[in-house]
Amino acid sequence: MRAAVLHETGQEKLEVLDDVEAVGFGPGKVRIRIRATGLCHSDVSAMSGVLPQPAPFVPGHEGAGEVLDVGDGVTALKPGDRVLLCWLPACGACPSCRRGQTQLCLAGFLNAGTPNFRRPGGDVFGFAGTGTFAEEVVVDAGCAVPIPDDVPFDIAALIGCGVTTGLGAAINTARVEAGSSVAVIGCGGVGISAVQGARLQGAAQIVAVDPVAFRREAALRFGATEAVAPEELPDAKQRITAGEGFDCVFEVVGRSATARTAYEATRRGGTLCVVGAGAMDDFLQLNMFELFFDEKRILPSMYGGGDVLRSYERAIALWRAGRIDLAGLITHRVPLAGINDALEQMRTGEALRTCVEI
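Now predict its structure.
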């Protein structure tokens, strides 16, 4: 079958090969035919080495498709079921799951160390235990979440990561309050979803911050009340909040520099919500006095900061009701053979989300 493979960490392009085999099928597993997958910035971060991932590997973790086969012991799924891929399934038994913090379950990360694919030259991993830039993938049954028939594969794929992450950051983690002021730094697919989440929560002012004009213009269509370039943020802070700072600022880039900017744009007693996934050697510096004196809440948000299955259901309900725009997030579509075009669109900021149709 065909899959897009990164041979070595640090390479900028993927090679689409037709000699890849999905492996690992057996008890408790499902085989899925991928129909659509989104390109998330985390895929690019894994390729560059910002996020740890063994190589060679097949990127992609934001996908949806059809179940081809189920292993022994799998009773909740059957061939033909339409599913989205959950890259961080909850085991239901660990301390995090028992506390109700299923987004912190580590069971899914264990899958990342087991090869999902094989080529004549050896094993190939799947990013985050999945690897959706492939025609087929074998995953634990818990990774395959059934979707209603009225949800298209491309919409379901987005719900599998970016939409859930951005919406959840605003609703679950930051709990944006009605009438509040919000800034969102980084307006790709996840940032735009955070904008939509803040709008749903009733924020009065939502300032979208991004260096790319196309993304700033798009943010206005999705509910931002204003969109500015990064160098214009101090002026927006002065005009909108009289210099006090925003009630809530979302950092959706994953860099200490933008997290520091977000901290400084947050009012005393406000909330900095860190959504971007950054590198292990990139440190955010705060002095102990400002940490104490400003009493700003720093809240990281992992996969939307809540139960992902409930978050999927909520996103579908909001989409059906016309309260959120998911189709508008997909600005480009490419076949698997055009995956490197999608990567370029991501890196330049030309796309909010590119849907790879497989």
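Residues 135 and 252 are 30 Å apart (CA to CA).
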